[in-house]
Amino acid sequence: MADMNDVVQLAVDAYKGKTAKYSVDTANKTVIEALIKLNNGSTKLDYKAIRDGKCPGLFAFIEQVLGRTVIDGLQENDFFNTLVEYRNIAEGDENHFIVEDNNLFFVEEVADGTQALRRQRLSGTTDIAIPTSMKAIRFYEELRRVLAKRVDFNKLISVASASFRQKILNDIYTLWTGATQAQFGGAAYFPAAGSYDEDALLDTIAHTEAAAGGETATIVATKKGLRKLKPSIESDGYKDDMYNFGYCGKFYGTPVVAIPQRHKIGTTNFVFEDNVINIVAGGDKPIKFVYEGDPTVFMGTPTSKADLTQEYLYGEAYGLGIVTAGGNSGIGRYQFTD
User: How far apart are CA 169 and CA 318, in angstroms?
Assistant: First the structure.
């Protein structure tokens, strides 16, 4: 069998529908052949064979592929890339974020030959940890059907990966939309509300950038929310963007990122409010996403189920939090009341 890492990469590429050397069908066949070999050469799951260690690497392969597709999928999300700092740590490693207070010294005017100045010192740091916990899904019989070629392996990967991505993005979105000024910590916070007022919005952007030491801000909102941005000067580029994308990619020079709207899990209610425009400035991404350890497949015992089905539990440990650096980041929110 080919190197495990090569087969894992092939499975990830096949899941995405992009393979460098093979067609997707050929890649899928190669992956199934690797799974069968890992399964002691059989297309059926044998609880005794697995128990007796005759199928080494079978579940490790599933774990690696699922772990890769979940994270790769997240990193294709513009909101994730704009606001989320991702950190992957080994289980038990410290996941602390060291936040420095970057306030500047006061410069005073003095007479020649005097040292009568108030002493100042470098500010300290704050150590913030993001607690993690295990999240899991349970499924049964799927792997057996994959090995018997009754189910496309990509289907198993797709359903499991999409389920975890939905959970992670929902957790991130909920954290961000519910964040209060206190949670933004050291970041300067500039809330504003009212009817659309171009000058008021530009002022909020300017305050946010000033708090971040002059760094360019980014506007983040849903596509429907971004339609509320109606600059008094409508260039041909503005009209083209509105026609092609439904929103303009810049607002008077400030970059704009559209958040894909999502439903709250189990409902048809949207996660994001369309009447809120978020403005973020500073080199530090405010949302911290800590992915701890390796994803794990736990195998159940068939005899513990009345129907004798084989059950599996796939779990990943992660945690989320908002951590902002003092003195070099700004966050603004403009809420439209009409």
Answer: 12
